[in-house]
Amino acid sequence: MWRDTLVCILILILVLVVMAVFGGCSDEQVAGPVGSEKAYLGNQPDPGSLVDTYILNGELDEAFPEDQQVYPYYIVRHGPEAGRYSFSEGDTVPDGAYVVLKARTTTDETALSRFNVQGQFNAGGQIHGDGIWFTFSSTYSSADLVPGWFDKYNRVASDTLGFEVGPFRYDVTMRGLLNLSDNEVYRDNSSDTLMFYGNFPPCVQCIEVGNIETDPTYQYEDPCYDQSCLEERTRLQVYSQNDPRYVADDPAVLKVLDSSQIIYIHAASGRITFEEPADPSEWKSIPGIQYTYLIYLHGKDHPREHWPETGLRVQERIKAWRYQVDYEMDADNAIADGGGVDNIDFLSGFNVAENDPEPYSNDIYIETSGDLGGAAGAWALRSTVGVPSILMHAGRDSYWGLLRAFYAASPLPPPGSPEEDILDWQAEPATQDAYTAWKLTTMQFSAGTIQAIAADESTCDWRRETNSYHYYQKTRIPDPNGRRCEDHAYDQPGITELGNIDLEDFIAYSDDRVPTVKEFDLELYPQNDAEPFTPGEDPPDWISGRSLGLSSQASRN
Length: 557
Fold this sequence. Notes:
The protein is mostly beta strands. 12% of the residues lie in helices and 32% in strands.
C-alpha cells in the first residue's frame, strides 16, 4: 500500500514540476486590439511566425497554378510598345506605366475566417539642386478586401497591388492580414519589400542648324546621339541682300528678319543686346540688320515612354531642354541666343498650350506638323544675328570710324607714327570703348558650338496638364487619372488624393547631364569685300601682340 501511495506522490510532484516549467497544457489565446501582436497565456511563439509573406520576384505563383502571369509586371498604355512586361527587384520601369505586384502569405493557423494581403509604397527621389532626398508614401490598402486567391485548407492566400509609376525610387511593402474573428486581427511582422525605379532617361538624337526656312529632318543613322549628324560641321553665311553672292534658295544663307534694327552696346560692362534695354540712355545704339538662323533640338524618350510621333501629343516627346550657344570670341556668353535662357545650367521651355510653330513670329516652339514625319516634336530655337549696317554696306574702315566717333576717341595718330604712339592712343579709355564695341558687335562671326541636354519633365508653369504626380490613400487611383497640376484633380468618392508633386524637381536628363555638342561656323561677308570677316578680327591698323593687355576691359580698372 505504502508503495502505491509513494508512486502517486511522485507522479503528483512530476506534474507540478511540468506545469511550473511549461505553464500548463492550456493554449488559450487572449487577443489584443486590431493591429497589435497576438498575445498568449503560457507558450508564446514568435509573433512573426503567425503569418509569413513573400513578394513574387520574377516568378509564377506556385500556390495558385491557374494564374500563369509572371510577377511583378507593368503595363504600358500608349505608343508602339504598349503591352505588358515582367520585371524584377532593382529594375527600372517606364514613367507612367502601371505596375502590378503579387504577394503570397501563409500561416499555421487552422481556424481561418478571413486571410488576405495588404500593400503600400514608399517613394522618393533626389531634389535637383537642393541635395535633399524627398520621400512620400501611400497608406496600406484596405484591410477588409477579399483576396484574389485563397486556399483555406492549405492556409495560403495571394493578392495583388497596383499603382501608376512616376520618376521615383519605389519600395513596395506587402504583408499578410489574418482575421481569426472580429476581435482577432493580426498583421504580419515579417512583411516583404521589393524595390524598383521609375523612369528611363531621354536621349538627344541630333542638333540641326539652318536658316529660318529650313525644315527639320529626321532620318538618323543612330536613334540616339547620331554621330554623323552631330559631327557634320554646319556652315552659315551672311550677305547683304544686294550682294550678288546672296542666293535666296541656299539653306546655308541667312535670311533678313529685320533690315532696320538697332544694336545696343554697353562697352563698360561688355554687354550687347538686339532688343531695347530698360534704360536705353545708358547704352550706345548703332543701326543694324537682324538676320536669323534656327536651331532644331531632336530628342526622344525611352521607347516605352515616348509619345506618338504624330498627332496631338507629339509635343510631349521631350518636355524641356537645357541649351547654350557659344561663339569662340564670346567666352562670357554675352549674347543671348535662342528663345530660351541660353544657359546650360537652367531649364528652357514655354507654355505649350500656346505653341505656335511659326519661325517668323516666335523664337521658341515645337514642330507639330504631320508632314514632317519623325521630325514632328523637334524643338526650334530662333537665334538672332546682329550685323552693323555700316560694316555690312560700307566696310571695315567706315565702321571703325563710326565707333571712334561714337565714343569721342582722339584722332588716329598720323600715318608713319611710331608704334609707341599708336599703342598709347589704343590705351586711351575712349579708344578702348570703341574697341570693345567692335569686338561685341563682331564676335558672333567666330566658331560656334551648341550644347544641349534633353529633359523628360518640365514645370507646371509650362505644362499644366502633364507635370504633376498624384498619389492616393490605400494606393487606389481613380479612372481616369492623369498629371494635371491641380490639387485633388482626380478625386472620386472613396478615392482621395494624399498629395501631388510638381515633377520639375525630379527630371531625368539625357546622358547623365553631359551636354551633346554641335559645331557650326557663322561667316560674315561685307558687301564689297571678297573675303569673309576673320574670327576675332581687330579693327583696321590695330596693333595686337603687346597691346592685347591694353585691349581689354581690364585695362580700364
